[in-house]
Fold:
Amino acid sequence: GDSVTQMEGPVTLSEEAFLTINCTYTATGYPSLFWYVQYPGEGLQLLLKATKADDKGSNKGFEATYRKETTSFHLEKGSVQVSDSAVYFCARSGGYQKVTFGTGTKLQVIP
Amino acid sequence: DAGVIQSPRHEVTEMGQEVTLRCKPISGHDYLFWYRQTMMRGLELLIYFNNNVPIDDSGMPEDRFSAKMPNASFSTLKIQPSEPRDSAVYFCASSTTGAGIWFGQGTRLTVV
Structure:
């Protein structure tokens, strides 16, 4: 079935460091791919999305490229800030708008 | 738009009591989802609706859980009777084609 695998956390980085959070997905069908972010005490918020192969989603300095050949959608940011500390979820769409989420990766950015 | 609205934000109840969680989706969205989030199991899809009709309830843990969507602007998730292992954050989310899923802020349920 549909599934998403993302790297285990927590990830701890210093401010201004480069961020990569790995994500791979099962290649059934033609899914859309998403990254969501969850700040403490809040619901998940859509961070970025890509709907077809080679698309790049971007928002707030974060980027991810839909790689069909490697079934990957890695999240990157060139220079993280303390305010980026949150849990990040990779997700893929399925039938009926159903979205399957990864287990989440906690990011902690220290000053 | 105010986004997906859930109530209550926090609920503390005693084991055996009935609990009802409420959700108002974003206007115009034709899909509605109920998720449960715990440290142990992460984010689990419980049930989702399309145009007020339940499409997949295979994630509902047992018969104590039920969900309804009487109209396009309202849904409930009911647990009867509640148990301590039901303690979690319950999220409602809504969507339409191409929009991604939009989440509410969740209801933190504690069953003592």
Summary: The radius of gyration of chain B is 13 Å. Residues 17 and 99 of chain B are 37 Å apart (CA to CA). Chain B touches chain A through 23 residues (CB under 8 Å). Chain B has a mean pLDDT of 94.
